[in-house]
Amino acid sequence: MTKIYGTGLYDFRRHRVAEYPVGIEALPQQPSTPHLPEKPPESKPGSNLPSSITLNEIQRDRLTKIAADNWAKTSVAGPKKLFSSELVKDIYYTELTVKGGRKPVPLQRVMILEVSQYLENYLLPNFDQETATFEHVMSMILMINEKV
């Protein structure tokens, strides 16, 4: 009889040395607790894949409050404030840059800015190639990369 390959389950996780299963005899005895399902690999610390973000986290985030005050069109916070290059600079240095090393940009922060339409409602309408700051241009680049 011919063998059929490709049937059954395939483990798509990216295995790393620290993630290989440890034999049951090497584990210390613990009191029995209900087995919790393993988190998906993208939400593990140190993973390069973006982790998911919940609606509750988006609503409670400080960037959502800044967006409501400055550029969100669906906000009932009153009249929008004028464009501030200082706000762009502050968001760039506190949310979009990483201190030291070759670490990736914090994708959850970029996702929150993407959901709030930071690029469409704040960066692009207020972009002037003559007077744009480095932070303004880099913020636009990061947001466009998130869209792609």
What does this entry look like structurally?
- About 15% of the residues have low confidence.
- The chain contains six helices and no strands.
- About 40% of the residues lie in helices and about 0% in strands.
- The chain is extended, with a radius of gyration of 22 Å.
- It has about 150 residues and is mostly helical.
- InterPro entries: Aquarius_N.
- Pfam families: Aquarius_N_1st.
Helix fraction by DSSP (H/I, runs of at least 4): 25-40%
Beta-strand content estimate: under 5%
End-to-end Cα distance, whole Å, is 48 Å
Describe the largest sheet.
none
Outline: extended
Poorly predicted ranges: 30-50
Oligomer: single chain
Rounded mean pLDDT score: 75
Give a count of the beta strands, DSSP E runs of length 2 or more: 0
Features:
148 residues; mainly alpha; 0% strand
Write a compact overview of the structure shown.
This protein has 6 helices and no strands. The protein is an all-alpha fold and 148 residues long. It has one domain.
Question: Topology of this protein?
Answer:
Elements: H1 55-60, H2 62-70, H3 85-96, H4 107-115, H5 118-123, H6 134-147
Pfam families: Aquarius_N_1st (PF16399)
InterPro entries: Aquarius_N (IPR032174)
Domain RNA helicase aquarius N-terminal: 63-147
